[in-house]
């Protein structure tokens, strides 16, 4: 099994800009503009080119960097909402905590809803819904075609 | 341990101990430490399988990144099964590797392992020797698995013939488990097992 490596526990998602420079985002908001590039030996975010493969940024191949950049782009396109208490789902199955009115949630194309922080951590590893396993990217592509 | 992992395990633990499978004694879950990083699982061997009547103990280690990554599970009870290593107890099961999803729980894992005992997948083996026997001589595989269940998991079926052969090797100075492994691997052919052990 390839998942015995030590992983970073941070929920921050760093963005990749281009294929040669990699920088750390200053907050956990997607799409945040960048400040100073941080040297790789100080911060070493861990990425998951596939669910059981974890690599620090310096170990990523160019192909994997492109894959991750695309993935971040897809995640950014998924709608974000605020939990208003009238959704069918009452708890986030990732953290198993009940939604509170005002929580920031992300709704996948299959209509399953999760805390944004929880689902983004999962989508960085696998672009499928953790509940129904529907591929998130395929659904997104179809929804682009029909609109 | 990351907060989300410990919080999930706490909730899952409560859920499992209330479940109907626990009520039926089909699965069991216990905490090993207070930090919710290690648990002990137990599954009952499914009916109509060579594992029937046995209880199989599992070591469950929860990674810091749980539930984004699957728990690490291994059989502590020795078992003869194509998808489980007869040496280390390591398991080959897709949901414990690349088919894991964050909505799965320890209960799902225990029930999937129980299902694996009912339906082996010899084409995706963890233990090549066991898988070969399963494919070439299913009857031999079943008697061997039943014998291991009897010895290590408290199963009811005692195999006098197998026990006699093991005793012969033990009298020759071979350690009992080592004798059992050699005989199991050579389809209980005492001569070939002896040859392998003393070569
Ligand atoms: Zn959540
Ligand atoms: Zn879904």
The fraction of residues in strands of chain B falls at 5-15%
Low-confidence stretches of chain A: 1-42
Number of domain modules of chain A: 2
Shape of chain A: elongated
The percentage of residues in β strands of chain A lies in: 15-25%
Describe this structure in words.
The complex is a heterodimer of chains A (147) and B (199). Chain A contains 3 helices and 9 strands; from the N terminus they run E-E-E-E-H-E-E-E-E-E-H-H. Chain A has helices at 62-76, 116-123, 136-146, and strands spanning 16-17, 21-22, 46-50, 53-56, 80-82, 91-92, 97-98, 104-107, 113-115. Chain A is elongated and about 45 Å long. Mean pLDDT of chain A is 70; it is low at 1-42. Chain B has 8 helices and 4 strands, in the order H-H-E-E-E-E-H-H-H-H-H-H. Chain B has 2 domains: 3-118, Ubiquitin Conjugating Enzyme; 128-198, no CATH class. The mean pLDDT of chain B is 95. The radius of gyration of chain B is 18 Å and the shape is elongated. By secondary structure, chain B is α+β, with helices and mostly antiparallel strands. Chain B has helices at 3-18, 20-23, 106-118, 128-136, 138-152, 160-171, 176-185, 190-198; strands at residues 27-31, 38-44, 55-61, 72-75. In chain B, 44% of the residues lie in helices and 12% in strands. The chains are: A alpha+beta (147), B alpha+beta (199). The A-B interface holds A 1, 3, 7, 9, 50-52, 93-97, 118, 121-122, 125-126, 128, 130-131, 133 and B 2, 4, 7-8, 11-12, 63-65, 67-70, 96-98, 100-104. Chain A: This is RING finger protein 11. Chain A: Residues 92-132 form the RING-type domain.
């Amino acid at each position: 099994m390839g998942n015995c490596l030590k992983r970073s526990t941070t929920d921050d998602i760093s963005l990749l800009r281009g294929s040669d420079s990699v920088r750390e985002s200053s907050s956990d908001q997607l799409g945040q503009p960048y400040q100073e590039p941080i040297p790789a030996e100080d911060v070493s975010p861990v990425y998951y080119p596939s669910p059981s493969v974890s690599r620090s940024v310096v170990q990523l191949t160019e192909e994997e960097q492109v894959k991750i950049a695309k993935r971040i782009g897809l995640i950014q396109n998924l709608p974000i909402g605020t939990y208003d208490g009238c959704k069918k789902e009452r708890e986030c199955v990732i953290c198993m905590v009940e939604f509170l009115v005002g929580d920031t949630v992300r709704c996948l194309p299959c209509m399953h809803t999760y805390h944004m922080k929880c689902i983004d951590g999962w989508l960085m590893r696998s672009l499928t819904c953790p509940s129904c396993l529907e591929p998130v990217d395929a659904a997104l592509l179809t929804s682009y075609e029909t609109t | 341990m990351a907060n989300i992992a410990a919080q999930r395990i706490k909730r899952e633990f409560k859920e499992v101990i209330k479940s109907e499978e626990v009520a039926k004694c089909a699965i069991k879950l216990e905490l090993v430490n207070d930090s919710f990083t290690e648990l002990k699982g137990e599954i009952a061997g499914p009916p109509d399988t060579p594992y029937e009547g046995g209880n199989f103990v599992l070591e469950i280690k929860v990674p810091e990144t749980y539930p984004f990554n699957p728990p690490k599970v291994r059989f502590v009870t020795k078992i003869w099964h194509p998808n489980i290593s007869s040496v280390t107890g390591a398991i080959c099961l897709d949901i414990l590797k690349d088919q894991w999803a964050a909505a799965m729980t320890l209960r799902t894992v225990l029930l999937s392992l129980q299902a694996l005992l009912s339906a082996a997948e010899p084409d995706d083996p963890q233990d090549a020797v066991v898988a070969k026997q399963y494919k070439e001589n299913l009857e031999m595989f079943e008697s061997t698995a039943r014998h291991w269940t009897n010895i290590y998991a408290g199963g009811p079926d005692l195999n006098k013939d197998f026990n006699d052969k093991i005793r012969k090797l033990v009298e020759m100075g071979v350690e009992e488990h080592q004798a059992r492994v050699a005989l199991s691997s050579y389809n209980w052919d005492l001569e070939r097992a002896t040859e392998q052990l003393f070569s």
